């Protein structure tokens, strides 16, 4: 159990994806981050973060397709 | 965490076909079930089964229900040849002789740089019993594998306890009913399981497996499709045009003369694979004339869509009214103003 905090939402039923993502974000300590793994660019999610967590998160693409996207989402 | 495709999703497929399917889906690893069509086994000509590459995903786990096979030199040879961990799926006795045989095999694997795994389900007591056995070896040679079945109510109830019980010995999770079946598993604890695995920094493999052979057809379609539904893929069966239908705005006729003429597009996005939903919805929205309405049906709260429109089109450009707000179905009426 020495990996990064990595949430692979490709496996999660659509309705449970966003709750799992925001629950994971809520569980982070300030300064911590998790890696979101998805099969498409999670841009709509970024807009949701910007609207609901304004100024409280960081967003850094680690991998951008074509099959897998990885984003490091950090808590400020 | 590394995602793996289980050969149970396509039991007749050769190793080359399984690897091609993994490559199409961006899955870096395979779980092979003993006896499936992949050709890897105790006395098979599986010389090409060795270390994977990005183009040829590695074999992470070889899964067998045969205890004699799993504890044999033949299984150790498979592990050495392929790099796979051997996962034994069987009730094993906790008598001294059986425990000693299992630990001796696990140590032989560890010495060879491979791993022996014992499998438990979502029963915390079973996981604790295997954990005690694993702890009998100070070097931690024996690993655990978890068969996580969302149709077993204990997954929803006891996932935290099972995870706690297996602890650092957990090396492999097998999720049944994943992949193209995911929408069937709503409310059964899959989201919570993945969140828990993330937060304990789980760094093992997670295999996607079908819940029943009855779903082989949809798995086969899912694995052979590079582009999904809703993007106009040729031969994909269902396309955006099938999903979107233009309707007259009958409901509003008579009440609001202005609305009578409003072109209305109904789009039920639920059958569309998640990765193609965004472009499908935005395509339908962009196709609306000014004043047109998109009647969108979704299986989760589409407020990310609202935020996306607000950020990219401006708040004045559209209207966004909820007609239905869950818990199973959400319907919103998106009106394009400009």
Q: Can you offer a commentary on this structure?
A:
The complex is a heterodimer of chains A (76) and B (338). Chain A has helices spanning 14-27, 43-52, and strands at residues 6-8, 33-38, 57-64, 69-75. Chain A starts with 5 loop residues before the first strand and ends with a strand. Chain A is of the alpha+beta class and 76 residues long. Chain A has two helices and four strands, in the order E-H-E-H-E-E. Helices cover 32% and strands 32% of the residues of chain A. Chain B is α/β, with parallel strands linked by helices and 338 residues long. Chain B is built from twelve helices and 13 strands. Chain B has helices at residues 15-25, 67-70, 73-82, 96-111, 124-135, 153-166, 190-199, 216-224, 240-243, 257-260, 277-286, 303-313, and strands at 2-6, 29-33, 58-64, 85-88, 116-120, 142-148, 170-176, 205-209, 244-247, 264-268, 293-298, 318-325, 330-336. Chain B is elongated. At the A-B interface, strand 1, helix 1 and helix 2 of A face helix 7 and helix 12 of B.
| Estimated share of beta-strand residues of chain A | 25-35%
Stretches of chain B where pLDDT falls below 50 for ≥5 residues? 227-254
In round numbers, the mean pLDDT of chain B is 86
Strand content of chain B: 15-25%
Number of separate helices of chain A = 2
**Total count of strands of chain A:** 4
Short account of what is shown:
Chain A has 76 residues and is α+β, with helices and mostly antiparallel strands. Chain A is built from two helices and four strands.
Highlighted features:
heterodimer; A: 76 residues; alpha+beta; four-stranded mixed beta sheet; 32% helix; B: 338 residues; alpha/beta; eight-stranded parallel beta barrel; five-stranded mixed beta sheet; 34% helix
């Amino acid at each position: 159990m020495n990996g990064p905090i990595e949430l692979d939402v490709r496996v999660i039923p659509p309705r449970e994806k966003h709750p799992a993502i925001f629950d994971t974000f809520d569980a982070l300590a300030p300064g911590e981050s998790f890696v979101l793994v998805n099969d498409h660019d999670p841009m709509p999610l970024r807009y949701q973060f910007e609207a609901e967590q304004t100024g409280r998160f960081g967003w850094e693409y680690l991998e951008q397709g074509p099959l897998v996207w990885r984003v490091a989402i950090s808590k400020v | 965490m590394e995602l793996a495709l289980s050969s149970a999703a396509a039991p007749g497929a050769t190793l080359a076909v399984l690897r091609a399917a993994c490559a199409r889906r961006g899955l870096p690893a395979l779980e092979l079930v003993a006896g499936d069509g992949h050709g890897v086994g105790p006395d098979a000509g599986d010389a090409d089964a060795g270390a994977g590459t990005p183009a040829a995903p590695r074999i992470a786990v070889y899964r067998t229900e045969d205890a004699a096979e799993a504890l044999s030199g033949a299984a150790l040879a498979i592990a050495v040849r392929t790099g796979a961990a051997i996962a034994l799926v069987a009730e094993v006795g906790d008598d001294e002789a059986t425990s000693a045989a299992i630990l001796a095999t696990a140590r032989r694997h560890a010495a060879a740089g491979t791993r022996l795994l014992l499998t438990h389900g979502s029963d915390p007591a079973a996981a604790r019993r295997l954990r005690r056995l694993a702890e009998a070896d100070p070097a931690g040679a024996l690993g655990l594998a978890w068969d996580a079945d969302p149709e077993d109510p204990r997954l929803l109830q006891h996932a935290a306890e099972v995870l706690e019980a297996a602890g650092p010995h957990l090396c492999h999770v097998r999720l049944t009913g994943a992949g193209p079946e995911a929408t069937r598993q709503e409310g059964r604890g899959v989201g919570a399981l993945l969140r828990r695995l993330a937060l304990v920094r789980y760094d093992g493999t997670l295999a996607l497996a079908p819940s029943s052979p009855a779903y082989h057809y949809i798995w086969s379609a899912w694995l052979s499709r590079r582009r999904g539904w809703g993007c106009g893929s040729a031969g994909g069966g269902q396309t955006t045009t099938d999903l979107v239908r233009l309707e007259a705005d009958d409901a509003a006729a008579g009440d609001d003369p202005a609305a009578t003429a409003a072109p209305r597009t109904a789009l039920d996005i639920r059958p569309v694979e998640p990765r193609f939903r965004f472009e499908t919805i935005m395509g339908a929205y962009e196709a609306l004339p000014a004043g047109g309405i998109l009647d969108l049906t979704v299986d989760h709260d589409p407020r990310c869509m609202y935020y996306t429109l607000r950020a990219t089109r401006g708040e004045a450009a559209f209207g966004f009214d909820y007609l239905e707000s869950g818990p199973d179905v959400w319907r919103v009426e998106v009106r394009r103003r400009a």
